[in-house]
């Protein structure tokens, strides 16, 4: 398995869930911009599951030498790359913040996804799992820079799923709602609408095994976002969401 964004609590919980369920991987490739933290997780996988893994440094904000990845081969890719950035009030007109949100969540991420998608296409097998966000379902004033990047990523995954279908490669889009992770620490999240990494991992694993196309981590979010998407614009623009 290839894991992009392997310091993510959700990514790590998914890896553990898959191994607990008996999935077999010759090697797990842990791509990370934080090598020290990821190496601790790699040691954990070795001790708990006797699972071989390899930590590979990847910083999307730096130039990428794709030749380093020539020997990375797998049948599953799990992408949990994400960057929330500063909220709209604090960061809307901070161009560095805006660029970083767009780069990490979309523009610098897609070429990496394409690199591995091409390998899957050539092999005519594989599953790609991409974590997008409910924030991409409709632009809301509270986080529309982040939401716009995730909307682009959702559209990319949709097109990739369509393109790879007859190449025998499946693409699964995951749309988490509120998540209790480091990225959302300190935010006032409704506990009834918030999933833990373990809950998310179980939901994603179920969608993975059932070869879903699109799945919300908590089913309630599909209803919430259906309502939000269908609010008429003349009303929606007046709301504080």
Shape: globular
Alpha carbon gap, first and last residue: 37 Å
How is the largest sheet built, in terms of strand order? Answer: 3-2-1-4-5-6-9
> What is the name of the CATH architecture?
3-Layer(aba) Sandwich
- Portion in strands: 5-15%
Percent in helix = 40-55%
Task: Report on this structure.
This protein has one domain: NAD(P)-binding Rossmann-like Domain (Rossmann fold). It is an alpha/beta fold. Helix 4 runs parallel beside helix 6. The strands form 2 sheets. The protein has a 7-stranded parallel β-sheet, with helices on both faces. It has a two-stranded parallel sheet with strand order 7-8. It contains 9 helices and 9 strands. The chain starts with a strand and ends in a 5-residue tail after the last helix. The longest helix is centred in the middle third of the chain and has 21 residues.
